[in-house]
């Protein structure tokens, strides 16, 4: 964590989180470091912070609690029930001591659940008349990834109450002032062509050329070499289990069954791996923790090459699993203990205590992994089978963006445009966020003034432009006209300019210019 690159977006997010009481929504494409940012903040903050997540495993990964657990909500809680609920365990005092609540993986949080949180905190938080009891709320996640789950039975009723299932459609969110921070720099992939392709898939602006490039990776008869550590990404748990069981069965040798140990309050929804872990020498596995010595991270892929019994200092025997990682290094893996935390008040401080433990080898079989479980992970080589194309919003994007390169992807079947599902409500919400952020930084009048200044002085402008597909583009332009313009009968304020990257005249809508600065010297046309 000490080597974290504090780029401009990171610094802005951290400053808002640590040095203000403003509510913040931190988003960004896959691989932009959202988890790294959260971890860094947790380690360095002086605030009284609670970190929550929608699922048990997500909460475990951020050393937090589930939203339901922290507030004592029942599984199917509704906002109108909150009035009747009491603070769990008589812990009313804790909610009055919180400075900041962070909700990670917020794309999976439903609008009604966020309204429950708001109602609860208005009852038990420090300031009952303010949204969320006056507590700073920080939301972290990518709305283009996996969405909230609304069952078929709930769908019709849900639509009458909320515009969308997403957290931003909560009634509490309408009254909330939220700062928008988008992490732009991608750390997972380095090939710009692949990054652009993922961006087009993310917001469904994919062209025929993009589809052609993507489908150049179609190899229906591909059989992975066991030495190459390919991970099969599936849409269902059932399919992943079938592949893993079949591959394990085909291996010769003895099956080792390692039984995990639970102490205290550690519910099944928190289990990161099987309570009874079945492995053999030769099995492909995924490691599920960040090694304290830095030898592997959560999501590292490897192969078991040896399982042997070791004698510990107290004469107890313990198995050691030797794993060859995908980069060729060999590591010895011993049982790991995961802990579930509960928050409590000690004087004026907010502290956490362990309420449950789970001890098990930090691994799972990983010839195949569900797309859902792959979220947040990074793989070098993946096999993707779209099956019948029954993908939810964001699933194709999550699957493809797990991989570090296009060359590492194998498609069993071609991907078509209709396989890529996109919720246009998400696009609309994020576009509004971009606009309000741009207006806050530079008003429309200010932008027009700067453009006129550049025209009068014959200077170029560097602009960040929000394209119609909701992608940001940085360009250098030399403007020569600004004012009211018309396109297909609709009037707007535009700027006519020479665009250096396109080497030609272009018209840009001023309201879609997110940021601009006047360059000190004119840019010559090539």
Task: Produce a short descriptive summary.
The protein is α/β, with parallel strands linked by helices and 526 residues long. The protein has 15 helices and 25 strands.
Describe the structure.
There is one protein chain. The protein has 526 residues and is of the alpha/beta class. Among the domains are: 8-183, P-loop containing nucleotide triphosphate hydrolases (Rossmann fold), CATH 3.40.50; 442-518, SH3 type barrels (Roll), CATH 2.30.30. The protein has 15 helices and 25 strands. The protein has helices at residues 8-19, 34-44, 56-61, 67-71, 92-96, 111-124, 152-161, 171-174, 192-202, 208-214, 237-250, 371-374, 395-401, 424-441, 444-457, and strands at residues 23-28, 49-53, 65-66, 100-103, 136-140, 178-183, 231-234, 256-259, 261-264, 276-279, 284-287, 301-311, 317-325, 330-333, 336-346, 349-360, 363-365, 368-370, 382-384, 409-411, 461-466, 472-487, 490-499, 504-509, 513-518. It has a 6-stranded parallel sheet. A 5-stranded antiparallel sheet has the order 14-13-12-11-17, with no helix packed on it. It has a 5-stranded antiparallel sheet with strand order 24-23-22-21-25. The model has no long low-confidence stretch (mean pLDDT 89). Residues 449-518 form the WYL domain. This is Intein N-terminal splicing region. GO terms for molecular function: DNA helicase activity.
């Amino acid at each position: 964590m000490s080597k974290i690159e504090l780029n401009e977006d990171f610094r802005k997010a951290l400053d808002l989180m640590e040095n203000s009481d403003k509510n913040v929504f931190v988003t960004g494409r896959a691989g932009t470091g959202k988890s790294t940012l959260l971890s860094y903040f947790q380690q360095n903050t002086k605030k009284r912070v609670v970190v929550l997540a929608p699922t048990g495993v997500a909460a475990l990964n951020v050393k937090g609690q589930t939203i339901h657990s922290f507030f004592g909500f029942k599984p199917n809680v509704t906002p109108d029930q909150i009035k009747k609920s009491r603070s769990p365990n008589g812990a009313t005092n804790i909610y009055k001591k919180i400075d900041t609540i962070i909700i990670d993986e917020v794309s999976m949080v439903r609008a009604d659940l966020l309204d429950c949180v708001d109602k609860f905190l208005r009852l038990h938080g420090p300031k009952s008349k303010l949204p969320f009891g006056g507590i700073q709320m920080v939301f972290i996640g990518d709305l283009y990834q996996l969405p909230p789950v609304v069952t078929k039975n709930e769908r019709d009723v849900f639509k009458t109450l909320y515009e969308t299932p997403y957290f931003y459609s909560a009634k509490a969110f309408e009254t909330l002032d939220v700062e928008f921070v988008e992490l732009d720099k991608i750390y997972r992939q380095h090939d710009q062509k692949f990054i652009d392709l993922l961006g087009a898939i993310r917001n469904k602006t994919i062209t025929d050329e993009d589809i052609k490039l993507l489908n150049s990776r179609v190899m229906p008869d591909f059989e992975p070499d066991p030495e190459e550590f390919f991970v099969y990404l599936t849409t269902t748990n059932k399919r992943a289990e079938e592949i893993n069981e079949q591959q394990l069965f085909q291996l010769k040798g003895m099956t080792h069954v390692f039984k995990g140990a639970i102490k205290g309050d550690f519910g099944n929804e928190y289990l990161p791996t099987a309570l009874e872990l079945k492995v053999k020498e030769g099995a492909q596995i995924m490691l599920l923790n960040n090694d304290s010595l830095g030898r592997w991270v959560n999501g590292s892929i490897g192969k078991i090459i040896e399982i042997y019994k070791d004698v510990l200092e107290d004469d107890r025997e313990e198995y050691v699993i030797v794993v060859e990682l995908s980069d060729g290094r060999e590591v010895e893996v011993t049982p790991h203990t995961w802990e579930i935390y509960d928050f409590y008040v000690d004087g004026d401080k907010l502290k956490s205590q362990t309420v449950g433990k789970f001890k098990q080898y930090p691994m799972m079989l990983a010839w195949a992994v569900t797309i859902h479980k792959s979220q947040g992970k990074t793989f070098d080589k993946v096999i993707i089978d779209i099956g019948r194309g029954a993908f939810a919003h964001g699933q194709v994007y999550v699957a493809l963006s797990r991989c570090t390169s296009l060359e590492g992807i194998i498609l069993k079947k071609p991907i078509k445009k209709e396989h890529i599902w996109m919720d246009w409500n998400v696009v609309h919400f994020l576009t509004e966020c971009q606009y309000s952020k741009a207006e806050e930084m530079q008003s429309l009048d200010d932008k027009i003034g700067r453009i006129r200044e550049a025209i009068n002085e014959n200077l170029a402008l560097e602009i960040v432009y929000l394209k119609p597909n909701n992608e940001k583009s940085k360009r250098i332009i030399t403007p020569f006209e600004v004012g009211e313009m018309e396109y297909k009968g609709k009037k707007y304020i535009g700027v006519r300019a020479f665009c250096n990257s396109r080497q030609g005249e272009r018209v840009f809508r001023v309201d879609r210019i997110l940021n601009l600065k006047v360059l000190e010297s004119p840019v010559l046309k090539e």
